[in-house]
Amino acid sequence: MKGQTLLARYQHHLLEAGCDEAGRGCLAGPVFAAAVILPPDFHHPALNDSKQLDEDTRNQLRPEIEKTALAFAVACVDNVEIDEINILNASILAMHRAVEKLLLPPGFLIIDGNRFKKYPSIDHACIVKGDSKYFSIAAASVLAKTYRDDYMKQLAEEYPEYHWHQNKGYPTKKHRSVILEKGFTPYHRLTFRVSDPLLDALADSSATIS
To answer: How far is CA 83 from CA 30, 31, 182, 199, 207, in A?
Structure first.
């Protein structure tokens, strides 16, 4: 939806909260989620899916979202829980926890993606690429991403060799190489596959030749 204005509401009868998560594809750290209730006439020209924004823009938007929102909350599910219940269930659980923390109870939820388990007594709609369609989901994506990035930078001080201050726990070549060399930390997701960057490169080369 590049160049197209995001929408303020999915429905107009109930107080609506947008929900999104960050860190689902990481090898280390928690998955974070946020729930945000914005004013019904909310508009911001720069707000979009957090993946479409650079880090400086996300950090600039975060206090604006928090100041303007009628209510917002951020929650997480750690790596141990992720290994126990799998990342899909953990992502949904993190969103449930965020909704539960809202000081203003919503009457309807809009969820980024196509999978969700009903939150008790609140109807919802799943919206594929919802973070690029609705302001509240985009706002939730920014909060989840920035809060998680800050958390991973804190963990990086404990384990600097894994470069979490840069990769935030995502499976970059450098991150995977350090895991294969030094092993897992207490913050890694043990059920996630860690592929060898060298073997990946050889596979890519073979595919190109064939």
So the answer is: 11, 12, 20, 25, 32
